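Figure 2 data, in text form.
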Amino acid sequence: MKKASLILDKDYAIGQIDPRMYGSFIEHLGRAVYGGIYEPDHPTADENGFREDVIAKVRELNIPIVRYPGGNFVSGFNWEDSIGPRAQRPRRLDLAWGTTETNEVGLHEFVDWARKANTDVMYAVNLGTRGPDAARNVVEYANHKSGSYWSDLRAKNGAKDPFGIKLWCLGNEMDGPWQMCHKTAYEYGRVANEAAKMMKWVDPSIQVVACGSAAHDMPTYGAWEYEMLMECYENVDYVSLHRYYGNPTGDTPGFLARSMDLDDFIREVVAICDAVGGRKHAKKKLNLSFDEWNVWYHSSQQDKEILKADKWGRALPLLEDIYNFEDALLAGAILITFLKNADRVKVACLAQLVNVIAPIMTRNGGGVWAQTIFYPMMHASRYGRGTALRPIVTSPVYDCKDYERVPLVDAAATLGDDGSLTVFAINRSMDEDIELDFDLRAFGDLKAQEHIVLHHDDVKAVNTEANPDNVVPAPGTPVKIDGGKASVVLPALSWNVMKFKK
């Protein structure tokens, strides 16, 4: 059996983990809202039409924040369409996704849903077809107590108390030609700066996220971040990153190495942020909001056929990727990468939450079930709190198409406020178990509490409504521990959670 080792010390602190690292995303796209979180005729629907079975599943993930209402959708969205009596709200053509938006679920309804799901709202403003004036108005509507036009209108619409939305996205992917009213870096930087300034004049307690480049492989990437931050650095708090991965060729070893690409991406954007800060002699450092990440490729051809048959339909089943076991392994590797960069990655949103490239799936009128990627997200969100620690890992390696010396074992660790220790690890080996030895002597007397494993012999195995427990976590082999030294066996191709307590 191959061996790997891991050394941990309390002094190897990376930084405090912001709970918002375990956020998610609901866009007015596909069946994320209509048929996902909202289905008034469903047997479990509450008095507001929200599926309580879905809310229960969302609560399992312990998600602290949900980005809303887009996404590409937001670049053509008039936020005023989503308030007031439902019967009077307009139906609009959504140019982003080729469907019709009915506005049945709007700002008030989503805030109510978020409270029931034990989460907060991260709201995106339209800096495509709209601009700073609409942005400051929606902040006033959502957050100002009373005595102004927009705050009094909120009260008239049934919400006397402010919503208290604290995190705001300044548009979405504004360098993408697919975006409504996409902009140059200078154009976006100027409008983002003015929007941020005016929004904070309305509510100084909020934080805002500036759009980074839409993708790592965009021709604008790098130059976009630098040029737009030269215009808005002083007034923004985070820069967004978006990244999706796929495995259309079936190259599992190469696919599972893609978290190395993610680590490079994070470090590059951090370097650009700090370069602008240095150029401006700024005292503050910008952090990162990785507000879209996931695997996304399974549904691409299906989506083309659906839109060809029913363009401008309502709540079409778009982007409904069915995730397999290897997708869950990469999701775990991505979460490990975020933890290893917890000093700068403060917000991250698994895109998305229900039905649309999502960990949770539903059937209209039917059941709800967890996809494979649900479980690493649930484990990280539940147990990955406190201080992120940098483990020193020695592991066998392999080479693949895009990377050399990919470690078979990748790991991250967290130290809880109560002194508990959690280690997350993946084994990328296709066919060999690996014994992982721990050196935990710096933590004193520890007891091995639990070893959780997610593994399946078939990398393409999926969960369905009929078979929701095909790929689920199970107890792993016991962790052997003696005097600060421990060992455990990581099965071939597995996601592992090892928990220790005083």
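Caption note: The mean pLDDT is 97.
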